[in-house]
Amino acid sequence: xxxxxxxxxxxxxxxxxxxxxxxxxxxxxxxxxxxxxxxxxxxxxxxxxxxxxxxxxxxxxxxxxxxxxxxxxxxxxxxxxxxxxxxxxxxxxxxxxxxxxxxxxxxxxxxxxxxxxxxxxxxxxxxxxxxxxxxxxxxxxxxxxxxxxxxxxxxxxxxxxxxxxxxxxxxxxxxxxxxxxxxxxxxxxxxxxxxxxxxxxxxxxxxxxxxxxxxxxxxxxxxxxxxxxxxxxxxxxxxxxxxxxxxxxxxxxxxxxxxxxxxxxxxxxxxxxxxxxxxxxxxxxxxxxxxxxxxxxxxxxxxxxxxxxxxxxxxxxxxxxxxxxxxxxxx
Length: 331
Fold this sequence. Notes:
The chain is mostly helical. The chain has a domain at 60-185 and 292-325. It contains 13 helices and 2 strands. It has helices at 3-27, 32-50, 63-82, 90-97, 100-111, 118-143, 150-188, 192-201, 211-222, 238-263, 266-288, 294-310, 313-325; strands at residues 226-228, 235-237. The chain has a two-stranded antiparallel ribbon. Helix 2 (32-50) packs antiparallel against helix 3 (63-82), helix 3 runs antiparallel to helix 7 and helix 6 (118-143) runs antiparallel to helix 7 (150-188). The radius of gyration is 21 Å and the shape is globular. It starts with a helix and ends in a 6-residue tail after the last helix. The mean pLDDT is 81. The chain crosses the membrane at residues 32-53, 65-83, 95-112, 124-144, 156-175, 196-215, 227-245, 257-288, 294-317. Belongs to the nucleotide-sugar transporter family. SLC35B subfamily. It is found in: Endomembrane system. This is Solute carrier family 35 member B4.
């Protein structure tokens, strides 16, 4: 597949996925578990058919390593989606998750004993300042909500702090999982499709612990207003339609990123994913009218500039621009 097509899959799939997730979370903020379960089930079934060949294909990486990876992946996915139930707005959710560079660098220094250049530390500092700015301004908005009395306001604020703690935990756990994957791939080779399947199939029994919550939201979804799907004319509850589209777009997003990693350099992949997050953020703010002050914009700018600095995209663009300037001019 041409890289341009993969980029379209990433932008189309990931950006629309965020839209349907926010449509679900706005109506039922506690629906994170049913969303996570549906995504895992869909990708697991697809992988069982096309990757595992109905269970006949043996994994290249020993199962015991997948069990460790799956425990981390399941925890990260559930905690990230559940954070939306803890008064975390979607823009802050996206900005906070963009801080994965901070966690990756910190754990890389502690676990892998890595050392980085001064430009890397500077970029991480920018990302940290940006996330802190957005988080601090969001905290002020939650604490100063005029529609709540003092007791209810404190209660909401404490839940919001718990949401921030959940996102922080998920960020660190995700970085640790990335380091674990890196060591596995060095030892056994890259098997991205296989890892995608086992990361989604093995955690499915764990959702039995969340079955009451999943069933409760399934009932609520079934009671939502009917919606007629364009073109095919099928009528279904609108929340089930949002969930179906969220699952499909999540799969398109993941497949797009996977194709991109096989066709492009890691720098290009990071740049595309970063720009996708920025587009998703802008759309969330404008379409859903999420509260976003000038300070939030400043913090967002710090996050994305820091991310681009970390990937050293400027160093790659410099020679490209120099060659463009030196090209022979037509008479």
